[in-house]
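look at this fold:
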Amino acid sequence: MEETLLKIEKVVIPAIEKREVDLVDLEYIQEGGYLYVRIFIEKPEGDITLEDCGSLSNEIDEAIDALIPHKFFLEVSSPGVERPLKKESDFVRFNGEKIKVSLKHKLNDNKNFEGIIEDFKDETLFLNIKGEILEIPFKEIKKANIVFDFSDI
């Protein structure tokens, strides 16, 4: 699946570069007996529209279809309010935001943390957890995403 994901990326990147959007994440996964190609895009400033997603989907659909011999579902969407943080630049961009982090290995007897991004530098996330700063090496982060506070709505 990893090899196919790289081939899909080679199709997706040029199509995205033509638009004023950024690639947030790309997945090629199996769920419940079905294969999915999921592409998450965002605009640096502004919201992704249904037209943005549909236009990209239409452009890449045939090329991706030629890469995958099995039936699959192609989904192009925004990453949502609880977007994943994948790249080092994501942690810099979302400085001050509340996030959830899952680690590959335990740190202070825990693998899961929630706090505010205090800083990100030298390949280290500085996470403020109730006033205490936890230093997390980027290479130890398995998964991270923004925590949206629904009480603000």
